[in-house]
Amino acid sequence: MCRSIKTLRPPFQEAVTEDDIQAAALQYVRKISGFRKPSQANEKAFNRAIKQIATASQRLLDDLVVGAAPSRG
After folding, report:
1. How far apart are CA 71 and CA 52, in angstroms?
2. What distances in angstroms separate CA 3 from CA 6, 27, 63, one per listed residue?
3. Is the pLDDT of residue 29 over 90?
């Protein structure tokens, strides 16, 4: 769906920053809303969605149990 959102969990990404999570949340909200930049009327809802998705994403990453790296063979 959002090809520009990269996988943020190990082993794909070892060090995930708050900026990485914010960027992924922004890309997701842009895709869902269809707006690259919201109008003034929608800015509050747009920014709230980014914050909520970033928070949920961080919680998900914190809670994931990741096993060994997948074999690529």
Report:
1. 34
2. 8, 9, 24
3. yes
